[in-house]
Design brief:
alpha/beta; ten-stranded mixed β-sheet; 11 helices
């Protein structure tokens, strides 16, 4: 199997059909499978996915959750059922808009072995399909581990990711800290580039839509809580990844510019100390 499409979903009944249809429309020279994990949805998502799986039994593998296990566990479970040389990611509320997307990304990765992930540009839309953002002039981008470490991850949303399905990358699911991460997609990209020493390439084409809607994971979180999550993930990164002196300086600058005032305003002196001791 060349590609496994990995889709995790929870209460995406309004959207999951569009996602699956966008997977099925892919035109490739190689076989691919669609592996879907539903995290015990309560809105009828599971019944809809089951209907697709019965209609396309040779392509779709469906793993309904017996209980709500959370997105991290759902993702790990689905990946472990993926048999493809490459894994393409897309959450159940997003979708693809280019029928040659998989072929283009696999062709690139097959010809450029110094990259572990291939991404592309995306269109951000609201629930009514209005465009909230799209880059009018896409250009090729390359992101290194050092870039990702300090937050540079332009145009690498989950629905754009195709990565090399190798044991080194999937080691992330064995790390105890993985289950403490909030932005798991960001940490996944950092870990993949860190553990392989390879880079991320962003193709200069818009080939997916990211849906910004009320039921979305991040859109439901208040700004202060989201900031706390960003700081928590930052502390996890500086504790569990290696970086050279120059990178340490850049991480310190990032913390001082982005996070320290927020912490000071909440009198979190101990937390500030625990962060700075890794960076000074």
């Amino acid at each position: 199997m060349m590609v496994s499409v990995c889709c995790i979903t929870y209460n995406h009944k309004k959207f999951i059909g569009e996602a699956i249809d966008s997977f099925l429309m892919q035109k490739t020279k190689f076989p691919f499978e669609i592996v879907i994990g539903d995290d015990c949805s309560t809105d009828g998502s599971s019944d809809m996915i089951k209907g697709y799986a019965e209609q396309y039994p040779d392509i779709i593998k469906f793993f309904p959750g017996k209980k709500n296990a959370g997105a991290h566990n759902n993702f790990r479970n689905v990946v472990r059922h993926c048999t493809g040389k490459y894994i393409a990611l897309c959450d159940g509320d997003d979708y693809w808009i280019d029928q040659y997307k998989l072929q283009k990304q696999v062709d690139f990765l097959e010809q450029n072995t110094d990259y572990v992930i291939c991404c592309h540009y995306t269109r951000v839309i609201d629930s009514n399909y209005n465009t909230l953002h799209v880059d009018p002039n896409p250009v090729p981008l390359v992101h290194t581990y050092q870039d990702l470490l300090i937050g540079k991850q332009t145009e690498t949303k989950t629905a754009t990711v195709v990565y090399h399905n190798i044991p080194e990358v999937n080691q992330i699911f064995d790390k105890p800290w993985y289950f403490d991460v909030f932005a798991a997609d960001k940490l996944f990209k950092i870990f993949a580039t860190y553990i392989t020493g390879r880079n991320i390439y962003v193709m200069p084409e818009v080939m997916s839509c990211y849906r910004n809607h009320v039921g979305g994971v991040w859109s439901m979180i208040k700004s202060n809580a989201r900031k706390d999550m960003v700081i928590s993930d930052f502390n996890l990164i500086i504790r569990h990844f290696n970086y050279k002196r120059l990178q340490k300086m850049k991480l310190l600058q990032l913390y001082l510019k982005r996070d320290i005032l927020f912490e000071l305003q909440r009198f979190r002196i101990r937390k500030i100390y625990n962060t700075l001791k890794y960076l000074i």
